[in-house]
Design a protein that fits this description.
The protein has 128 residues and is an alpha+beta fold. Helix content is 16%, strand content 52%. The chain is built from 2 helices and 7 strands.
Length: 128
Amino acid sequence: MRMAKEDVDVKMQIPGAVLRQQLDFGDATGYGKISGEYFSLAAGVDTTPLFVGLQGNSCQCPHWGYVLQGQITTTDERGAQETVRTNDLFYWPPGHNVKVDADAEIVMFSPQHQHSHVINHMIEKVKS
């Protein structure tokens, strides 16, 4: 299945971030259905306040992806950090927060049910 970025629904748009999610994008055995996602993120975006209230105050969904451009640093629940940059493939295990170091465009594949829960939590945080 191929999808253009513009054909993926915008699920959330706030200053500095546009989150797109395509539901039913495939099936990752053991995880159920997956979604294909494009994220456009501005330097300085930090998920820490958006994840407050989730287990461990972090995203508990794994992600597989590719950095089209930019730089992002993840911090896991133990405090370990990892930085991904333009043209890197990545896997982010459950239990992470994200800080955007340089304007970034990424493509991710995530277990649909788990990540929809996280995105819906962020949407509610922004409304508050």
